[in-house]
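Issue: copy button drops trailing tokens. Both records pasted manually instead:
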Amino acid sequence: MVPVDQVPIVFSAGVPVERRAEVRAAPHFRRWLEQAAGRFDLRRVAVRDVVFFGARVGFILIEADAWHEGRQVPGAALLRGDSVSVLVVLHCPGHAARTILTREPRLPVACPDLLALPAGMLDGGQLVSTALRELAEEVGADLTVSAAQLVELTTVWLSPGGCDEAITLYAVDLDIDPGAMAALEGRRTGNRDEHESIHVHVIALDDIPCIGRTDAKTLLSYHLYRASLSGPAARPEAVQS
């Protein structure tokens, strides 16, 4: 195998020369390169295109000449880095357990109103701090959650046939009063600098499987939470009507 610092990296003409050093140094590119070089016979990496989000290196489309056990493997990949999501389970006296979903446009799947859990990309940060930041941005800073309250459900790759992204799923149980819960419904949030337009919705936790087409993190988080010993079995009020 070729040592990682000796793997040839070439760029297409469409990637600005003055920004190629940033691409090489981007955390998600470096991580992928180190792991790929350590596990495959990685002979060459061609950076076909890069999407920059202002000063930040965003999506990186690469095509690698990679081999495993003497055979070449498919080499195209979209590198975008890892993400986190949070299943917030609200416990309000006299009500079944509720959860918080965001509704926002998702152009890649041509869906203008996708309902899903609050989530976001790491962008070089740490898992827990990113999870707390995304909750504050997408739900509101008045929803008080500490790092110690977050329970990690699992980490999974979302589309390993074409993308490097792994998502870490968290859950958190929160006690809330009726007024605070009502104040969450319908509020508009999002990071304007990232062109986010988010509507917050509070629904019954057990309605998640019935909301229609959603994403993998939302369904998986729900089922893992329901299966966990620290979930609703320990919270009798969650099953009240």
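Record 2 (pasted manually too):
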Amino acid sequence: MDRYERIIALHRILQAARYPVTVPRLQDELGCSRATVYRDLAFLRDALMAPVVGDGEAGFRYDPQQGDRFELPGLWLNSEELHALLAAQQLLSRSGGGVLSGALAPLQQRIEKLLDEHATGKRWPVERVRVIPHRLRRMDEASFRIVCSAVLERRQLAFEYRARSTGEKTRRTVSPQRITHYRDNWYLDAWDHEREALRSFSVDRIGNARMLDTPARDIDEATLNEHLSGSYGIFSGAPRGWATIVFNERAARWVADEHWHSQQQGRHLGDGRYELKVPYSNARELLMDVLHYGSDAEIVEPPSLREQARSLLQLALANYDR
């Protein structure tokens, strides 16, 4: 335990203590020598102005009249929090000279300053933390900022949208509800005023975005979650049914620990295989994820989904028969 962690731990022990805490107990809980306990108590009292009272024989505690109101000044981080901050710093710096880099530059600078303050003269080996984007799509930074502003300022949004599945280009006027980061890409959940329904839009397909003066229509959180989170993946809509997928023993070691859906049901079968059940509406994304496992996965139910998987596999096989 380094000094920062000891000071945090000492502060929490004294703040929670109803009676004086003896030096031997502090030694035991902090894992340090008697002299170190006294040095840390002195630093807490004299440098940080903590209301430490007591002596070496009776023990130490915070003054009951002031202890509840005292907090450590500034930002104090233990090693786990510091490492999480370090990972966040790397995520900001390496996730892409892209959309967020300019807007979040001040935040990154503050994180780096905090890391320097807590490094106590050491250089953190930040190059040993890796963040690797996967299938990240290019996005127009101006459109992304307008979309985010409309979400936060609760104003309607007009834009051109080119559907990836058909290539069709349409004009949309929507009330943005929330911005979603999913699989390294951004999506806008919104109420489409022309279609009078909730829709999800891939932000990288949005162009010529314009924030309107008209206030956005707010959809309650329960309705949003029911419509946009009820089924598997990013595709919206109430579940049409449940898919049952069985993974062989080799794939089961991974799938049993994976989160596919908030309502998923999974169980180990007696022969080492793993059965996973998930609700779905649009089969496209679910099929892609199941077929990613190749021969290690089999869709058992429903028959219609199983037949779709069979057709896709036959089409894929045909590519290799030429």
